[in-house]
Structure formats: C-alpha cells, structure tokens
Amino acid sequence: MKKSKLLNVFAVMLSVLFIVLTAAGCSNSASGEEDETKESTGVLYTVSINGVEVRVGETKVQSLLDSGLKVTVSDASEGITNIKTYEIDPDTILAPNTYYTAASIWITDHIFAHISMVTDEVKETRMGDCTIARLEFSLSGTDEKADLDRIVFDGTPLSEMSRTKAGEQFPDFTGDEVMWFSPATMDDYEYFMSFDLQSGKITKLSLEYDYDVDWTGSNQ
User: Fold this and answer.
1) What is the pLDDT of residues 123-173, one digit of tens each?
2) How many CB atoms lie within 10 A of CB 57?
3) For the purposes of burial, counting CB atoms within 10 Å of the CB of 46, is it exposed (0-12), middle (13-18) or buried (19 or more)?
4) Using CA atoms, how far apart are residues 198 and 204, in angstroms rounded to an integer?
5) How many helices (H) and strands (E) does the chain have?
C-alpha cells in the first residue's frame, strides 16, 4: 500500500475551486508485479438518495447525475460576499490517483450533502466516472418528514432515525446522547451520526470509504 501526500493546492476546474489530494491505493510494484486488489474490511452500509443507492467506495458520481441531482462547487476566490456556484461537468477529465472534495449536492431546498470523489488509481478519469468516496448530509435545516424520507440509511428513512433507533440498529457503534459512530475496528468504512439533544432527531449523517489520503501534507 503506497502512501499518498497532500498537494496543498486548489485546482481551478471550470473556474471553480476544488480541494485536490492524491489518493493512494494498492498498485503494482516497481518490479512489475501484477496489480493487487485492496480487500475491504468492515461493514458497508448503503444510503439511498431519492431512491438511488450509494455504496461509498463503489458507486459512481454519474449515478447521482442520472437521477437528476446536481453536484455543484463554489468559488469563493472573490470573497465570501461574492461566492459563485457552478454545476460540475461530468465529462471533465481528471488526473489519476486523485481525491477531490468540497463539492455539494442539494437534495431539497433545506437538505444538502458534501461529496468527495476519487479518480482511478492509474489512469485519467471522467468526472462522472469518479467513485464516491464520502457523503456528509446536513439535516438541521428541516424536520419535514417528506424531506427526510428522501434519504434512507441502511433501510431506515432518516425521518425515523432517532438516537434510540440508531443505538438499536447499530449496537456495535459507540458514542453518547448526541453522537453515534462506527468504532475504529471497522477499518475501511466510517459512519457518523449526530442528534439533537432535546428531540433525539438526527441532524447529520456521514459515510466514508477510507482512502489512504494524507491530510497533513506529510511525505512520510
């Protein structure tokens, strides 16, 4: 498994700022050995958005676009008072072995998700064919059942995902009254939920496949 490093730059694509990092994975060695396939460890829980199932580490960005969802990025280069939002172009060609974050999906007028994506390890990748690496849903903007029912985590609509329900459905997770998350022993997959202390309703959900990205920028 090779180590990735932070490029520590903003790449300008379609006049839009993306955070770009190298994303490591198993690859062929310098001696010419065949490519090795990384074996996943842990449990893959799926999430559905408007009926489209997403498996982090497997599902492609194009699946969301085909369902009518818009993936956007924001350009704040002219200051926070003049932020411009752009839809991604799925036909944009991206560098290999690269991790992109800071894009968003608006699911309703009040619910959105941050999305990260990763390209193929050894070849350039069309943006629509990038793999979804992470989703983080911000849910505090609404408590409307119809809105929350658009997102289903491991078979449970988020309108029904209370702190009590999460504890029953994911007994191997850990946390407290307002957080419930997967243990470190789950390895490749990371899940996190936060809840309102008074109502117990879910306010945030994140799912991530753990690519070997060095967020510190170290070359070690």
Assistant:
1) 999 999 999 999 999 998 777 899 999 999 999 999 999 999 999 999 999
2) 20
3) middle
4) 15
5) 3, 17
